[in-house]
Design goal:
Keywords: Kinase, Phosphoprotein, Transferase. Its EC number is 2.7.13.3. GO terms for molecular function: protein histidine kinase activity. This is histidine kinase. It holds the Pfam family PAS_3. The chain has 610 residues and is of the alpha+beta class. It has four domains: 133 residues, PAS domain (Beta-Lactamase, 2-Layer Sandwich); 103 residues, Beta-Lactamase (2-Layer Sandwich), CATH 3.30.450.20; 86 residues, no CATH class; 144 residues, Heat Shock Protein 90, CATH 3.30.565. It is built from 19 helices and 22 strands. A five-stranded antiparallel β-sheet has the order 2-1-5-4-3, with helices on both faces. A hairpin with a 5-residue loop joins strand 13 and strand 14. The longest helix is centred in the middle third of the chain and has 54 residues. 22% of the residues are buried. About 2% of the residues have low confidence.
């Protein structure tokens, strides 16, 4: 701040060396400071103008009337302006040059400089006694004489580029140092201004310094003298060193391009999310994942595509980001695509802050985990089936060993008796032998019937029975299939007159899963799916019904094949014809049965009797 104040004082001091008055003017045209040279006749009127707007005194002072509109134009264009004003002071005609110079270090302020021309001829106006002021402001000054093709540079200009007096004399000397690609642009802009086609001359070019390097500069200029035909004679202006700014802009451009490439061509979904929850920017992966176009997404709030149960799941984490308790977070979050498909993702969020340490926007990385989630569910289901099979196999082995002992014990007697009778030749007559063989055969058959009955009981007696709740098991299955249930807008209806059942839970889970998943798989695309799950107790026999309004089965064609292995009733579906076979096997292993009623395109009902 002190450095800026010193620069302002230096500029004002320099301007007053050859001027009567320097007025500092704010952007709203208020005269904030008035400095007069010692012994200036204008000095007595300071209080008349200080703190007032130019328009307020314009009615009483023609000088300010001419300045008001030009000040505004100088603020807009950043260019200097010049006019000559004549007035009577002490009955003597006095000419003043009025220069409006936007060279103030503060861009919201400029200077109005009044020069008394009583001691200068008209040709001397263009000597521009404010050159030193420009140097004090940090800009290099150039003065181009178009008539004799010469150019003059201020000491500050030479300091910027490193040249000595005499090294750059003609306009050609100057143009040779301009970077070739920029010279065309500079000459075109200058010609437009000199011909009147453009209101200002301003261009950014690279200029060759004495050490061989190029430096970016901002070149600005105005015409200060014309001949009688109106052709420009004198063209003066400034060169401002903008090299650091251009380098910073180039670095920023490269940084933006790098970020844009990383953002747009990333293999994962990337998005910028506003603090209010609106999408600011999304890449193609996000569009593919949600099935929305970029234009559609940018009109939506993040809640619009978030699975309802997950809308507020990371609210507390966002609060911690905003309070800087954590730098980022990752959560599993579900989104809903345009076609109502549920997409499970891994969402990672970071918060970007601006230079004033204010939160700016969220950066979101979104990785599609849907397939992984489906595979995990499938693995879990397969593990359950494998565990069931393993338990059944071990039970069967143990039970067969017991049955083997029973068979050996119960059948050995009758079979041995028949063998003995057949070997006792002459001991028994034919009638006695036949009678004894008949009795042994009856005993053998009775034992076989008994063993068959025992086998039905024995093969299942060691399976563990659980206290199963129908509602809980179905809810778990719905949770496993939540994505496809949401996507197909499935309505699951319960009519549970019986809540609990003593049954092997692992069997009941498998039975219900197969029946519900089949109903979802074979649903109709144009009809919302309804699955009705009912239980009842009829004469102390518990029944389960799973009914749907899906594609149904052609019972006339498939009636005897519904529960057989490798039977497929609808083409074009991911089906191997195993589910119903396994379901029937499990039910019958515990002594139950399963039946089906179905009509094509009307739906199916499976009834399980436990």
């Amino acid at each position: 701040m002190k450095n800026i104040k010193d620069r302002i004082e230096t500029i004002i001091y320099t301007l007053l060396q050859t001027s009567e008055r320097v007025i500092e003017v704010a952007r709203d045209h208020t005269m904030t400071r008035i400095c007069d040279r010692e012994n200036s006749p204008l000095k007595l009127t300071v209080d008349k103008y200080l703190g007032k707007k130019i328009a307020e005194v314009a009615g009483n002072d023609n000088i300010f009337a001419q300045c008001d509109s030009r000040v505004e134009q100088c603020f807009i264009s950043g260019q200097n302006d010049f006019l000559v004003y004549r007035t009577n002071i002490n009955n003597s005609s006095t000419a003043y040059s009025i220069r409006i110079l936007p060279i103030h270090p503060d861009k919201n302020l400029l200077f109005i400089v009044l020069e008394n021309l009583a001691h200068y001829g008209e040709s001397e106006i263009i000597q521009d006694k404010w050159k030193l002021a420009l140097d004090a402001a940090g800009d290099g000054m150039w003065d181009m004489n178009l008539k004799d093709n010469t150019i003059f540079f201020s000491d500050k200009w030479k300091e910027i580029f490193g040249y000595n007096s005499g090294e750059i004399v003609t306009i050609s000397d100057w143009t040779e140092k301009v970077y070739p690609e920029d010279l065309v642009t500079a000459e075109a802009n200058a010609n437009k201004y000199l011909s009147g086609a453009s209101p200002i001359y301003s261009t950014e070019i690279r200029y060759k310094c004495k050490d061989g390097t190029y430096k970016w500069i901002l070149s600005r200029g105005i015409i200060v003298s014309k001949n009688e035909e109106g052709s420009p004679l004198r063209f003066i202006g400034t060169h401002t060193d903008i090299h650091k700014r251009k380098l910073a802009e180039e670095e920023l451009k490269i940084s933006k391009e790098t970020f844009a490439n990383s953002f747009n061509y990333s293999g994962t979904g990337k998005a910028l999310l506003g603090l209010g929850g609106n999408w600011i920017e999304v890449n193609n992966i996000i569009c593919k994942l949600t099935e929305y176009t970029k234009e559609e997404l940018l009109k939506l709030h993040y809640r619009d595509i978030t699975y309802p149960d997950d809308v507020d799941m990371d609210v507390e984490l966002i609060k911690k980001l905003l309070t800087k308790e954590i730098p980022s977070y990752s959560v599993e979050k579900r989104y809903v695509s345009k076609t109502r498909k549920v997409v499970t993702t891994l969402l990672t969020v970071t918060l970007v802050w601006d230079n004033m340490d204010n939160p700016k926007y969220f950066v979101c990385d979104i990785v599609d985990m849907t397939r992984k989630k489906e595979l995990n569910n499938e693995i879990s289901r397969k593990n359950i089936e494998l565990e069931t099979t393993s338990i059944n196999l071990m039970n069967t082995i143990n039970q067969l060993e017991g049955l083997n002992q029973i068979v050996a014990h119960n059948l050995r007697g009758p079979a041995g008796n028949i063998k003995m009778i057949s070997e006792q030749d002459g001991i028994f007559d034919d009638k006695e032998a036949l009678t004894m063989i008949h009795e042994s055969s009856i005993s053998l058959l009775n034992n076989l019937d008994l063993l068959l009955d025992l086998s039905q009981i024995k093969l299942n007696k060691d399976i563990q029975y659980d206290d199963c709740n129908f509602q809980d098991i179905v809810n778990d299955i719905i949770k496993q299939s939540q994505g496809i249930i949401y996507q197909k807008n499935v309505d699951v209806i319960f009519h549970l007159r019986v809540q609990n059942l003593a049954y092997p839970k692992i069997y009941l889970e498998s039975i219900l899963y197969n029946l519900i998943s089949n109903a979802i798989k074979y649903s109709k695309e144009d009809t919302p799916l309804k699955i009705t799950i009912s239980t009842s107790n009829i004469n102390n026999v518990i029944q389960l019904s799973v009914k749907d309004n899906g594609l149904g089965i052609d019972m006339e064609k498939y009636r005897d094949r519904v529960f057989k292995l490798n039977q497929v009733f609808h083409q074009g579906y991911d089906s191997k014809g195993i589910g119903l076979f396994i379901t029937k096997t499990q039910i019958e292993a515990i002594g139950g049965k399963i039946e089906v009623t179905s009509k094509l395109n009307e739906g199916s009902e499976f009834i399980v009797t436990f």
